[in-house]
Amino acid sequence: MSSTFDGLRIARSGVQASRDNLNITGQNITNSETEGYTRQRVDQSSLSPSEYGGFWASTGATCGDGVRAKGVTQLRDTFLDGEYRTQNAKDGESSDILNALYDMENIFTSTTTADSSSNSSAINVLNNEFGKLVSILESYTNKNASESNVREETKLLASDLNSAATALNTIREHQYSNFSENSVDNVNGFMKNIAALNQRIKAAEVAGSPVLELKDQRNLMLDKLSKYVGIHVEYTRQDAGAGQKVDNLSVSLADKDGNSLKPPFTLIDGNQFANFTVTRDGNNESGAASTKPFDITHVRLSGLSSDSGKTFGADSGLKNSDIKSGSFSGYLKLLNESGEYDTAAGNITTTARGIGFYSQLLDTISQSFARMLNQDNITEKGEQHGLLGGYDVNGDESFDLKDITAENIHIASTWTDGWLVKSKNPGTGKDDNTNASYSNIINIISDLKDKPVTLNTNLDGKSGVTILHDTLQKGFAGVATMLGEDANSMQVADTTNSQLLNNIHNDRQSVSSVSLDDEAVSIIQFSQSLNASSRFMTAVDECLQTIINNMGLTGRG
């Protein structure tokens, strides 16, 4: 038989549940703009009646004992969390590569605005200077320019090559600095803080304290970590003692699809975390000497350690190739990969054109330019008057092509007036610089403008990969063109990645974010529920007063 006071108990549970729901609604509203906050809700269940019935059960209507607020949970979708972090890594990689390509584009193009128009136009710096040299040579054949004019214009073009090579090296150093300092420090900080939060969450759960806000902090850090490296997050039930179990969070490196690598490389496990370091040297991944003209950047991952120990375990054996996505992958491609030049060098074949590709392409163009000018500037006796040179390992001027790079190409120290051979006089067998026909100069102009050259990844041109087979003028113009094409291609990929990331973000927000409209409806709903429960309690109280105070008077005379 139900207790006389069951109605009050049911009403009281309704008031308490409505109050809890109103408090959580207020918590949601006040945190609607808090970064990383996840919408919360009260979990409720109906209380069973105190009498369950049976053989000796009393008859009549049986009512439950009200409602119970079991706890507060977050509205999150772990599948969408995983999809977001996988796509975030892809977006982090493409955006970093794209920004570096834009920086490199600025080396080879300049923007000008005409005085009579607000329209701006991009100028291909190397191609523009190359065209000026050809124009000066043509003016020279018409006696409208002097040899000193030709020499100064050649010097300007060589200087542009020097500046471009130096600027590429500066970008390389900037990328390495961002990678080895800022990015790695951020990632190591995130891993350390996530491990600390794991410990705090576990301790709070064991003590029965609320942990939702701590989980929000952890999820936000996991999202930020996924920008740098692809991660796979896993929750496992762990015995906390006294028969109590709690979730243990572990994080490992993931492939492009978000699956943990096999064998796994663990970044975080409970309160333990690993540590990334970045170094560079002249060796490739296997430890053998690299054939690349720049140092190789290596990423290393330590074993796990707790914050109290601060002594990280042995090297995990991670290789650059194990970094599949994220900003780390973008940096490695920019710093280490050289596209077609890697194929020729006998290293691991790569398709990404990092900074090394454009640096080596500039060297190839500089060598082809020097070879053409030096070979064409030849006397009747077959003596070659070098116009462009480089420096050997001892710092001495050299006309050997292997010693010429974009960074050191310069006009020869011997180039003074009369060094440029105007023409050959077949009749006298001597050079004719007095009544010249300018046959040599005309030949130089023709070769620069019209002669097909092969820009090959190997200096001998007999092996390796052909980058371009066209005129040298197209070669000078081609650097900016290739960069533009690569940047456009990467921009398409980055735009696609950003759109996909935004779509997943919106899907995730539709589940987890706070909608003020929805919360406003909840306020009305739970306010009405609170009022109704309170009115129910008042009605039950009035009934009890009648029963207690008045029913006992019946029949009194």
Which terms summarize this structure?
alpha+beta, three-stranded antiparallel β-sheet, 16% strand
Outline the fold blueprint.
Elements: H1 6-30, E1 40-47, E2 66-74, H2 78-108, E3 109-113, E4 120-124, H3 125-141, H4 147-207, H5 212-225, E5 231-241, E6 244-253, E7 266-269, E8 272-273, E9 276-281, E10 296-301, E11 305-306, H6 327-336, H7 340-345, H8 355-376, E12 388-391, E13 397-398, E14 410-411, E15 424-425, E16 430-431, H9 439-450, E17 452-456, E18 466-471, H10 472-512, H11 516-549
Antiparallel strand pairs: 1-2, 3-4, 5-6, 6-7, 7-8, 8-11, 9-10, 12-13, 12-14, 15-16, 17-18
Helix pairs in contact: 1-11, 2-4, 2-6, 2-10, 3-4, 3-9, 3-10, 4-5, 4-6, 4-8, 8-9, 8-10
Low-confidence blocks of residues: 115-121
List the strand order in the largest sheet: 5-6-7-8-11
Main sheet attributes: strand count, strand direction, barrel closure:
5 strands, antiparallel
* Overall residue-averaged pLDDT value: 87
Tell me, briefly, the overall form.
elongated
**Overall radius of gyration:** 38 Å
Report the β-strand fraction as a percent range. Answer: 15-25%
Can you count the beta strands?
A: 18
Name the helix and strand elements from N-terminus to C-terminus, one letter apiece.
Answer: HEEHEEHHHEEEEEEEHHHEEEEEHEEHH
Helix content: 40-55%
Distance between the termini: 32 Å
Number of alpha- plus pi-helical segments: 11
Task: Return the structural class.
Answer: alpha+beta
Number of domains: 3
